[in-house]
Amino acid sequence: xxxxxxxxxxxxxxxxxxxxxxxxxxxxxxxxxxxxxxxxxxxxxxxxxxxxxxxxxxxxxxxxxxxxxxxxxxxxxxxxxxxxxxxxxxxxxxxxxxxxxxxxxxxxxxxxxxxxxxxxxxxxxxxxxxxxxxxxxxxxxxxxxxxxxxxxxxxxxxxxxxxxxxxxxxxxxxxxxxxxxxxxxxxxxxxxxxxxxxxxxxxxxxxxxxxxxxxxxxxxxxxxxxxxxxxxxxxxxxxxxxxxxxxxxxxxxxxxxxxxxxxxxxxxxxxxxxxxxxxxxxxxxxxxxxxxxxxxxxxxxxxxxxxxxxxxxxxxxxxxxxxxxxxxxxxxxxxxxxxxxxxxxxxxxxxxxxxxxxxxxxxxxxxxxxxxxxxxxxxxxxxxxxxxxxxxxxxxxxxxxxxxxxxxxxxxxxxxxxxxxxxxxxxxxxxxxxxxxxxxxxxxxxxxxxxxxxxxxxxxxxxxxxxxxxxxxxxxxxxxxxxxxxxxxxxxxxxxxxxxxxxxxxxxxxxxxxxxxxxxxxxxxxxxxxxxxxxxxxxxxxxxxxxxxxxxxxxxxxxxxxxxxxxxxxxxxxxxxxxxxxxxxxxxxxxxxxxxxxxxxxxxxxxxxxxxxxxxxxxxxxxxxxxxxxxxxxxxxxxxxxxxxxxxxxxxxxxxxxxxxxxxxxxxxxxxxxxxxxxxxxxxxxxxxxxxxxxxx
Length: 697
Description:
The protein is mainly beta. It contains seven helices and 44 strands. The strands form eleven sheets. Strands 29, 33, 34, 35, 36, 43 and 44 form a seven-stranded antiparallel β-sheet that branches. Strands 1-4-5-9-8-7 form a six-stranded mixed β-sheet, with helices on one face.
């Protein structure tokens, strides 16, 4: 007879149904006042690998509502209008197929969740103030209701199972939600996948004609394409057709009379993660079909197909019914072992099969024997030479509390003079310590970091000016007419009666170009003199300063290189008077490299190029150019860490009011100065991982 879990009046959900329902149920909520409370839970081991759970309440027990799922195997029991007064809300059971029990209270009900090794038959009945839950093979069909001995009257009529509404909604994260409103909260629901569709079957629930239809919800951009609502005999079925080639995850839960089934889209990352978690079966495909077969004979068949040796424990017995078509033999073996609570260990080409508890007990005994052997093993002393690492650092690692390789009797000491470890331990532990030292005591890789600091200057200046003057002169005795001279003359020399005289410069407008070249004109008339001097200056300058600090350091070690001077400056205080202090104006490179497994270099960098600036009240200022950053670069590549571009344009005009604004002639009454300067700072860095034997020029 094919093994089948009997579920008649309980509601059965898939694994995702249970997870979603549990998440909603255990949400924090203000509970309504209820006089009835759950006071204790006791369990008793029965014959035939069965267990009886007895729930004791303060008042006559209500009719419980039961839910089950198969992956993972869980049974959930709800007690309406009941408070939770258990001192311990989680208990380990470990009897039969019951693993543990968890209890929680929310709103107006108490829920108990029994974790199982696998789904099994169960029965539930009410006996006065008690609820009796029996689990195990051979238990009569699941029943919910008062026993014959119960003194509590139960209403004879119950709401008729019926679906009153079916709706579709889109969630915030793109999930498709099918929301079903039930008349009776105890309507059994079975959710499963069939022929690429998700089927929700509401057992015994009637469906109005107005709800029989197909919903085309493709435009909602969810994993759901169609929702078909139909009758299926005495039951009702909702068939969900997903969008082609879209991965999804189904989650179902029920709150009160609202049943919700969600199809959530899966990202590519989740799909890959699930593939890694799923077991990979590669064995030869076989087909097995038995009404009843001895488990030992079935294991023999699989061993013959696999062509491997198998040892089966004497405690493995019993029959099993199964039908498997075209499945890998290793998957068939996995299914058989899980269904019978068996485990398997492989040693070479031999498989050993035994109950899980027996395997755990044997491995525990082997571990205890090994520990005892370690305690009795003789100690030996050995010296381990450390070449590249520090012996003291390796000692700290070997004797660390979290990852110690030492036994309780062993010890290790360090000789700093010879950089050696002196170990007193068992032979096996010394071998492990030697292997660890061999893996860690390796040459540290080194990195050459070269930085270039480029400072470029571009200056341009243009100035135009004029000096102009008019004066009265007595020229009655001057011979030679007018005299014209050129250049920056302070005056004009004339001849009067054979003796030279000096006509001084008397400029009414004096706006020359500073330090520029010029031309001067003087005109001497009958009784007047006119002086004019035009001057202009244009300067251009370009400069480039390149600084290249270089430093070699070990992987993970900080290195600093600097060159420059310390500039003195004075500081004064009321107590100490005047003191001379120093401040650095240096070119420096501060770097901590880390070599990644793919031969890249991650660097924490600080590059600085300071210089002496202006003198302010006798103390020099420091012009600072600095960058602090973290960068990841391939070895040998050059990257620009940063740059500063500064451009200054200025235009100054000095003029005689009104006259300086006259077109064309205004240039004689003003001075124009135009300046343009550019400053550019670029910082480059190039790391190179040094190989063994590599020379740096």
